[in-house]
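User: Let's play a game. I give you a shape written as tokens, and you guess the letters that built it. Ready? Here's round one.
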């Protein structure tokens, strides 16, 4: 009887140790990424499924948990770099009109440093007042460093706000400093925030690491317009594409650390994806 009792105690101890090991094992990590898709004509593609997509993180295939239309409210930081001309006033107004009800907006004008006209809000009267301040303001001296710093600062603020669907929009008639000392910091902030950067610039201006590479790395878009061409239709289309974003979730195996290298591709012909190539790694 004594031997049987000892054997039973050993078996229970082994079973408990095994249970503890299972409980201590880290669970699968679920990751979330926003992206958009357009067809050859630039119209939003709205019927993608997980079967159409392939996800890689850190160079490894990762199983897709789900793909759905994005419904979370957006936090949109808009920077107006118009040299004081008021060139984007009508376009910003129509951008608001298209996305209103789906986002909170913050607007800053470059003077040449960023001056916040309105903090994040969805209040119609407050946004109307902000639009009124985007008209002609007299000539503003260019400073391509300021827009780089502004993007980095907005990304950091969105991360601090824990914005669920963060977006940065830059509207510029001048571009940026090509070799800015602040570019790497701004790009790191952009990655860590998970925000997508969207840029509209006037043809012939210089884009550098942030405004040129930032949209590609963050899953945003770059639009260019010729001088004198109406800008409002471009901004309306930008807003419509944001409204048709997807949210994708995928999983990492137990014990695998997140990587900031991300790749999303599709087997569907005639479909272009706007997805990040760098994602937060924590």
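Assistant: Ready! My guess for every position:
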């Amino acid at each position: 009887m004594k031997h049987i009792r000892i054997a039973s105690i050993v078996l229970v101890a082994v079973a408990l140790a095994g249970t503890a090991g299972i409980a201590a094992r880290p669970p699968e990590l679920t990751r979330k990424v926003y992206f958009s898709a357009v067809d050859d004509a630039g119209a939003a593609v709205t019927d993608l499924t997980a079967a159409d997509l392939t996800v890689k993180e850190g160079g490894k295939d990762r199983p897709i948990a789900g793909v759905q239309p994005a419904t979370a409210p957006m936090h949109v930081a808009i920077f107006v770099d118009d040299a004081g001309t008021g060139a984007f006033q009508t376009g910003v107004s129509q951008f608001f009109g298209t996305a209103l009800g789906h986002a909170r907006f913050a607007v800053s004008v470059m003077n040449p440093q960023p001056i916040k006209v309105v903090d994040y809000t969805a209040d119609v009267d407050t946004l109307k007042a902000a639009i009124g301040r985007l008209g002609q303001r007299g000539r503003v001296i260019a400073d391509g460093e300021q827009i780089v710093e502004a993007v980095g600062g907005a990304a950091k603020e969105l991360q601090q706000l824990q914005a669920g669907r963060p977006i940065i929009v830059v509207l510029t008639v001048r571009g940026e400093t090509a070799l800015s000392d602040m570019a790497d910091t701004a790009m790191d902030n952009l990655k860590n925030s998970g925000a997508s950067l969207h840029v509209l610039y006037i043809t012939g201006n210089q884009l550098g690491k942030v405004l040129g590479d930032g949209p590609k790395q963050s899953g945003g878009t770059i639009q260019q317009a010729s001088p004198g061409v109406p800008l409002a239709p471009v901004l309306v289309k930008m807003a419509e594409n944001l409204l048709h974003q997807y949210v994708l979730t995928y999983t990492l195996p137990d014990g695998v650390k997140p990587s900031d290298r991300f790749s999303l591709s599709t087997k569907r012909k005639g479909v272009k994806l706007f997805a990040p190539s760098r994602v937060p790694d924590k």
